[in-house]
Amino acid sequence: MASSPCTGGLAGETRWVEDLDGARGLVARAGSVVALTGAGISTDSGIPDFRGPQGVWTRNPEAERLSDISHYLADPEIRRRSWASRLDAPAWTAEPNPGHRALAQLEQAGRLDWLLTQNIDGLHQLAGNSPERVVELHGTMRDCICMDCGDRRPMPDVLDRVRAGEADPSCEICGGILKSATVSFGQQLDPENLHAAELAVRAADLLLTVGTSLGVYPVAALVPIAVRLGADLVFVNSEPTPFDDLAAHVIRGNISDVLPALVPA
Ligand code: NAD
Ligand code: ZN
Predict the structure, then answer these.
(1) CA of 117 to the centre of ligand 2 (A)
(2) Strand partners, 179
(3) pLDDT of residue 7
(4) What is residue 19's predicted lDDT score, i.e. its pLDDT?
(5) pLDDT > 90: what percent of the chain?
(6) Which residues of the chain have pLDDT under 70?
(7) φ/ψ of residue 93, rounded to 5
(8) What pLDDT is recorded for position 264?
(9) Which is the closest atom of ligand 1 to the Cα of 43?
(10) Whose CA is nearest to atom 15 of ligand 1?
(11) CATH topology (fold) of 61-93+141-182
């Protein structure tokens, strides 16, 4: 059963509640629940998304173009700007919100097998989800990696060097270019992470996507894989996604309100 989006007003409100009830039933009954989260789950923690109405790229399309790895590697000025914005990233002071906490509770209740995330902010782990059940498909901003020798270390250590005056710090081992351990446009996802995500989705009875516009591949391709193998889909997102017609329930509410209501008492 595909549901129509909530459009507000009384009819919309009724639909929302019906979908919430249906989704709650699926979460309670499914043998294996897998969640796929995106930037929308962290907006209530003060971290803007990219493509929502107030998104970083919606407001500044040039920022999307500059996020390609080729610009980062070729242009020291872009790297200097990237380091300055890493220093100020809202995620360093952000706290998990009720949406993150609901997914942690779902795992603690034994109802969440895997948490696949496109987010790089680490808030799921801070909320209490086990790191071994979280697959960070787009990497993490909490680590820094050398683009030449692969040396990996905690990002705060490198940010200390930026604060001390190195505008574009280089690798202390090989002199190579350093970058956050995140996947930029033009970079491949870690094949092991992608494989783990595919296995999780293949085994899922329910795929719960939260706060993602499902516009970034190959992650978005996990959705039709789940459907093909018979999983139910529940989407929680304030805007439509290209896959809404495939979903058993689409809940257009705010994630911080909806997710706590989906977790079995
Ligand atoms: P996106 O920006 O493309 O989509 C986010 C979606 O969430 C939008 O459709 C928006 O309408 C919805 N949304 C935002 N706040 C919401 C709320 N409170 N309740 C309900 N819906 C809400 O995000 P994406 O699909 O994750 O793709 C963006 C890419 O950017 C990802 O690859 C991710 O790595 C990266 N990113 C990560 C972060 C983070 O780690 N927090 C932040 C920005 C971007
Ligand atoms: Zn190096």
Answers:
(1) 27
(2) 145
(3) 40
(4) 87
(5) 85
(6) 1-17, 65-66
(7) -110, 0
(8) 79
(9) 15
(10) 40
(11) SIR2/SIRT2 'Small Domain' (3.30.1600)
Gap between the Cα atoms of 238 and 16, Å rounded: 11
Structure tokens at 216: 């970034």
CB 234 within 8 A of CB 26: yes
- CATH tag, 1-47+96-138+188-265: 3.40.50.1220
Token pair in block for residue 252: 């257009």
- Read off φ and ψ for residue 144, nearest 5 degrees: -125, 145
36 sits in the region (left: phi over 0; alpha: psi -120 to 50; else beta) called beta
Which residue among 100, 124, 138, 249 is the active-site one?
138
Q: Starting at the edge strand that comes first in sequence, how are the strands of the sheet with 139-146 ordered?
A: 152-154, 139-146, 178-182
Write down the pLDDT at residue 155: 98
pLDDT value of position 69: 95
| Mean pLDDT taken over the chain | 92
Question: What residues does each domain of the chain span?
Answer: 1-47+96-138+188-265, 61-93+141-182
Closest CA to 37 of 244, 252, 236, 249: 236
264/252 Cα distance (integer angstroms): 20
How much is the CA Rg of the chain, to the nearest whole Å? 19
